[in-house]
């Protein structure tokens, strides 16, 4: 419950305060958000499976974000930034879908 | 979100046994329930459970954990083990949502989700504004920037010229005379454009001789457009001054320009930069080659002094008056 509140408060603060993102971080923000979403879906599924562990969740969340940003950074340096970030989004999207399917099976039993 | 460690002290989970009576005796046997419950803690070490362990681990955990609440109730302190209880994912979710519990896990997850929500909101905000340039490619952006730079440069030049005029108007001892001078200057410039005053300057003379009569009005028009594109400032063809609304017609008796009959040789007197005008006519596939294909000869002569002295009458508009 508190976790859900954290998400809601985050969205509200982001919309109200309008923080300025430093331009160096700007290209990595969208991919980091998608990676974090993947971690969140994975955590939700783990919770429904009864194997949720907060330490694992924290580590996976942070490492997902860092690795995704690193891949984009590397892609930018190699000149294939757009393609590589597309690839990252596709992979994360597949994972999100499979996690969502598992969650759906738990919640709706279907 | 819930976590395994608060299961033992969680009343709702313990109070929701699934009706599977025939399993109950089996689960009482502690040695049997322990090993069966063990697969669960192992995937806990994995960040996100992979699809493979999921179908195997979940039914096993469900089947075993379902009857657990009854027998486990006396042994409450020890099942701090993960996957000890929790009947189904749905119940786990509801239990995690309500009642809210303040635990370390909840707080860390809340902090991370706060960061996620913040990032999400910022990204959505920044994507929703100035979307016209956002999707543009890098080369397009560079081109747009260059165009803007050029335009800014031109406007700066124009501004500087106008500021000079204003300074002269303001500082000149005889302001009326200065204003008159500038107005006359402006009138002369406009007169050259409108064809109402004669003009002179460097340029070229283009003579088209056409013994076979193959040159028609469209060819002359092409020639004129080519000259204009190359920066011609004042043009006269034979005795007709060419201005913005000049037109060519092709009749049975030959070519007419603005209604005046012109006969060959067609002599174009053009004021402009000679080193721009002559190559523009001589480019491969250009005016000169086209004329030669029509068995006409074109002769281009550069000159430092071309006089364009054919005039057009300045027409007073009947109804329109200057509003100043």
From TrEMBL, chain A:
Listed A to Z, the keywords are: Cell membrane, Membrane, Transmembrane, Transmembrane helix
Task: State where it is primarily located.
Answer: membrane
Q: Where in the cell is it found?
A: Cell membrane
Matches recorded under InterPro entries? DUF1290
Q: Where are the transmembrane segments?
A: 29-48, 55-74, 80-103
Q: Topologically, how does it sit relative to the membrane?
A: Multi-pass membrane protein
State the family named in the UniProt similarity comment for this chain. Answer: Belongs to the sbp family.
Any idea what this protein is called?
A: Small basic family protein
UniProtKB/TrEMBL annotation, chain B:
* Chain residue ranges for the region called Disordered: 1-87
Annotated TM spans: none
- Could you tell me where the Basic and acidic residues compositional bias lies? 1-10
Q: Does the keyword Membrane apply?
A: no
Instruction: Please provide the record's keywords in A-Z order.
Output: Coiled coil
Output the InterPro entries linked to this UniProt entry: DUF881
Keyword Hydrolase in annotation:
no
Gene3D superfamilies in UniProt = Protein of unknown function DUF881 (3.30.70.1880)
Q: Which family does it belong to?
A: Belongs to the UPF0749 family.
The molecule here is called: DUF881 domain-containing protein
- What is the originating organism of this protein? Actinacidiphila acididurans
């Amino acid at each position: 419950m508190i976790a859900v509140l954290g998400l809601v408060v985050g969205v509200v603060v982001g919309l109200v305060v309008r923080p300025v993102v430093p331009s160096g971080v700007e290209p990595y923000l969208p991919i980091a958000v998608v990676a974090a979403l993947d971690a969140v879906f994975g955590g939700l599924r783990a919770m429904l499976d009864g194997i949720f562990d907060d330490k694992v969740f924290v580590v996976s969340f942070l490492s997902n974000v860092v690795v995704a940003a690193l891949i984009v950074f590397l892609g930018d340096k190699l000149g294939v930034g757009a393609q590589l970030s597309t690839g990252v989004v596709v992979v994360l999207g597949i994972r999100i879908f499979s996690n969502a399917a598992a969650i759906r099976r738990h919640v709706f039993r279907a | 979100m819930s976590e395994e460690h608060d299961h033992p002290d969680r009343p709702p989970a313990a109070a929701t046994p699934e009706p599977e009576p025939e399993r109950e005796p089996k689960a009482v046997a502690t040695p049997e329930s322990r090993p069966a419950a063990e697969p669960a803690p192992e995937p806990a070490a994995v960040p996100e459970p992979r699809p493979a362990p999921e179908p195997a681990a979940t039914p096993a955990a469900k089947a075993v954990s379902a009857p657990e609440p009854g027998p486990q109730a006396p042994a409450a302190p020890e099942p701090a083990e993960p996957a000890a209880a929790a009947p189904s994912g749905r119940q786990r979710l509801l239990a995690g949502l309500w009642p809210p519990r303040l635990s370390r896990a909840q707080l860390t997850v809340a902090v991370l989700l706060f960061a996620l929500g913040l990032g999400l909101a910022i990204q959505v905000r920044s994507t929703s504004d100035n979307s016209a340039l956002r999707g543009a490619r890098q080369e397009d952006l560079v081109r747009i920037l260059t165009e803007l730079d050029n335009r800014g440069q031109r406007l700066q030049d124009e501004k500087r010229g106008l500021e000079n005029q204003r300074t002269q108007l303001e500082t000149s001892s005889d302001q009326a005379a200065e204003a008159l001078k500038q107005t006359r200057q402006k009138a002369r410039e406009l007169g050259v454009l409108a064809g109402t005053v004669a003009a002179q300057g460097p340029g070229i003379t283009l003579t088209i001789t056409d013994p076979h009569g193959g040159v028609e009005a469209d060819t002359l028009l092409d020639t004129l457009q080519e000259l204009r594109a190359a920066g011609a400032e004042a043009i006269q063809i034979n005795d007709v001054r060419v201005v913005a609304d000049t037109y060519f017609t092709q009749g049975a008796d030959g070519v007419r320009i603005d209604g005046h009959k012109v006969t060959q040789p067609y002599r174009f007197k053009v004021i402009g930069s000679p080193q721009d005008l002559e190559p523009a006519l001589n480019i491969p596939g250009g005016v000169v080659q086209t004329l030669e294909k029509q068995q006409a000869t074109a002769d281009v002569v550069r000159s430092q002094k071309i006089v364009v002295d054919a005039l057009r009458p300045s027409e007073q508009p009947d109804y329109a008056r200057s509003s100043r």
